[in-house]
Amino acid sequence: MRIVLVGPPGAGKGTQAAYLAKNLSIPHISTGDLFRANISQGTDLGKEAKSYMDAGNLVPDSVTIAMAEDRMDQPDAEGGFLLDGFPRNIGQAEALDAYLKGKGVKLDAVLDLEVPEDEVVKRIAGRRICRNDSSHVFHVDYHQPKTEGVCDLCGGDLYQREDDREDTVRKRLEVYHTETEPIIDHYKAQDLVVTIPALGKVDEVTQRAMAALDKA
Ligand code: AP5
Ligand code: ZN
Question: Which residues are noted in the entry as AMP-binding (predicted)?
Answer without folding.
Answer: 31, 36, 57-59, 85-88, 92, 161, 172
